[in-house]
Write a structure and sequence with these properties.
The protein has helices at about 1-20, 65-85, 115-120, 130-150, 160-175, 250-255, 310-315; strands at about 95-100, 180-200, 200-220, 225-245, 290-300, 310. It is of the alpha/beta class. The protein has a single domain, classed as Nuclear Transport Factor 2, Chain: A (Roll).
């Protein structure tokens, strides 16, 4: 009976918090080893209307929500202590832990590589699903490495302005709190195109990505681990949403080169905080010239399959 009541309470709590809390995909692990893995069910969610005006918006936690959180934390602590007095899960070093726990396990984002490639190629003959997936994997690795370095300079050109600003605030928080994140032995297991939306202004291309990694955080001053450990490999699922201006065509130098050439003039890109090419002055981080990452979330229970939404003319 107690378990049933707690389960109902947990479901209600999660539904309530989902409406007002947004957790970064970079820093969403609660390192919960008990009960089958950590809950990575956060992720920045910039809404489903795909408008740039909605990107980066955050809800606030009201007084009632704060009380709920406190109550929930107390319950979790009590239950954890009770489990500790019985059969403890003990050390799980070296094991692969499902990063989702019960979160998002029933969410299916289908592989639409062929279908999306066919639609995009009707207007952009050089587009390749395989090349774009390879590009998205590299963006994922580069951004995770930049997060650990607490310096986004190297990935500024591949991030939309709103995502960059939001993540930069999180990086500043880590530096202020003297917390160093560590993501090691990153291995991307699966990645594919899962959704594509085109309107008169922008194209939105989403990639599903599954990766395993060692995840922990240390104190900058002492070097001591404050969260996680150096051996547990977490299994994570992500949804990466890229944006570019409708009508933009694939340029081999911009889409597939790891060196980040300016997609407008082709010159080697000297990365600046403004995201501008020093040669032609083009801003290369807004999607006007090439795909940029505008949304980076973990797959969770409320993650939706955006499907394929284009005009009837594009589908024929």
């Amino acid at each position: 009976m107690k378990k049933k009541v707690f389960s109902i309470f947990a479901v209600i709590l999660f539904a309530a918090l989902s409406l007002c809390i947004s957790i970064s995909a970079f820093d969403g692990n609660d390192y919960d080893y008990g009960g089958g893995g950590g809950d990575w069910g956060g992720g920045n969610d910039w809404g489903g209307d795909y408008s740039f005006s909605s990107l980066g918006s955050y809800g606030s936690i009201g007084a009632a929500s704060a009380v709920i959180v406190i109550v929930f934390v107390i319950i979790v602590i009590v239950i954890t202590k009770k489990k500790g007095n019985g059969n403890s899960t003990g050390s799980i070093s070296g094991k692969v832990i499902s990063g989702q726990g019960s979160q998002g396990r029933l969410v299916h984002l289908p592989n639409r590589n062929d279908q999306i490639q066919e639609i995009i190629r009707k207007k952009d003959l050089n587009f390749s699903a395989d090349d774009f997936v390879a590009y998205s994997k590299q963006v994922f690795i580069d951004i995770e490495n930049a997060w650990c370095a607490r310096d986004l300079t190297s990935v500024r050109p591949v991030m939309h302005q709103n995502l960059y600003n939001t993540t930069q605030q999180q990086v500043a928080g880590k530096i202020r709190d003297k917390v160093v994140p560590h993501l090691e032995s990153i291995a991307v297991n699966t990645a594919y195109l899962t959704s594509f939306v085109r309107d008169k202004d922008y194209e939105y291309l989403a990639v599903y990505l599954n990766a395993r990694m060692i995840d922990y955080q240390t104190d900058e001053t002492t070097g001591n681990i404050i969260k996680g450990d150096r051996t547990t490999r977490w299994d994570m699922r992500y949804k990466m949403k890229f944006i570019r201006t409708t009508g933009t065509l694939t340029n081999d130098k911009s889409e597939n080169a790891h060196g980040y050439n300016c997609p407008n003039c082709g010159a080697p890109l000297e990365i600046t905080s403004s995201g501008k090419c020093p040669y032609c002055g083009s801003v290369v981080s807004t999607g006007d010239y090439s795909w940029v990452l505008a949304d980076f979330t973990t797959v969770r229970n409320d993650t939706v399959d955006d499907g394929i939404r284009v005009s009837n003319e594009d589908q024929r």
